[in-house]
Amino acid sequence: MAFGPNWADTHAGLQPNMATLPECARPAWLETTAHPFAVEPLIPTPLPGEVRTVGVKQGAYQEYEQIPAPTAEPYTLRWRIGVGIPEKNPLYFPWPAQRPGWYLNWSTGYTVTRTLAQRTDPVRMEAPPEIELGMDFYPMVRTPQGRLQPAPELLAQLAAANPGRTWLIGNEPDVEWQDNATPEQYAYGYRCAYTVIKQSDPTAQIAIGGLSQVTPLRLIYLERLWRFYAKEFGQEMPVDVWNMHAFVLREEAESWGVRIPPGLEYITQGELWDVADHADLALVRGQIVAMRRWMQEHGQREKPLLISEYGILLTAAYGFDAPHVNAFMLDSFDLFNSLSDAEMGYPADDNRLVQRWVWFSTRYPLYPAGNLFTGYDKPTAVMRTLRDFLDAHGDSTAKTIK
To answer: What is each CA distance from 304 to 80, 138, 299, 348, 396, in whole angstroms?
Structure first.
C-alpha cells in the first residue's frame, strides 16, 4: 500500500513531451476520464485513545555497515521472500546475515534518481550493489493516471544503464490514492513504459502493476484492461511477469478499505470484508487461485507470478498484535511456498502458484503492525521471527517447511 505517487521520483526540467514516442502519445479523451485522487481511508477510523505513531524514525538516518551476504540462490526460500522499504534505502537497517532475498521501494532508486550536472551519464539509479547487499532490487515506475514517473526520457537512460532488471510498472492503479488510473489510462502508461524499457534494454523483464487484491471486482478491472489493450493497440498486452497484491480489505464506495477501482464507479460495492477478515489466509489463498486461474484462461500460465505487497495493515488496537502478526507471516510463507496446481501452476517452479513475495514493510508509521524495525532501528518481534525463519529455512527449496 505504501504511499501515493507524490512520493515517486520527480525530475525538474526533464518532463517529457509524451508524443515524442508514438507509443507514449495520449489521446485527448483519456484526460476527460481522470478520477480525482483521494485521501487515504485504508483502515477504519482510529479507535478512541489510539495513537498511530509506532515506528516513526527517531533521530538522524544512518547507513549501517552490513554483514556480507551473497545474493540468494533461485527458488530458495530466501530468494522468494522480499520486503518493501518505504524509506527507500535498505542500508538504513541493520540486516542479519540471513536477510530477505529481494526488495522494492516504490521508486526507481534507493534515495531519488538524480540528474548530475556536467556529466556524460546524467542519470543513475542509486541502489547498493546486490552482490554486496545480498538483496535483489526491483525498481518501480509509478503510473499516476497513466503518466510515467520518472519521465520516459529519464526511464530510457535508467534502463540502458541498468540492464537485466525486472521493472514493476505501477502500484495499485485500481486504488484512488495510489496510482489511481482507469484501465484505459493504465494501458497507455504501461505501453509507454514497456516500449521505453525494452528499446533501452531488451534483456529487461516487465511486470504488470499489482492490483491491491484479487477479487471479482478487481478482475473486472483487469479484464477491461486486457481487452482494451488488445483492441486499442492491435496486440495482446505483453507481460513478462505477472504481479498482484494480496490484502484483505473492504470494497465499498466511500468506506474504509480499497473502495472501488477508478473507471468502475457505476459499481458501489464488491467484497464487504470486515476487520475480522483481514488476516484470513483462506481469503488470501482464494485470491492467488483466482489470479492463476485468470492467467491460465488468458494463456499466461507459463509466466511467473509475484505478490509484490501483502501483510497486516490494521493495528494492534484491532487485535493484530505481534503474536498474531508473527503467526500470519509464518503461515503465509507456508502457504505461498507450498501452493501448487498441476494445471495452473508455473511449470518452471514445480507448478507452484507464487514465485516471490514482498512483506509490508521495514517501517511505516501509518501501518506499523508488520514493521520489521522500530523507530530506533532495532528489530521488532516480527523481524526476529523472520530472522529465525530464514536461519532455519532460508536455503531450502522444499515445498514443505513445517
So the answer is: 12, 15, 13, 9, 19
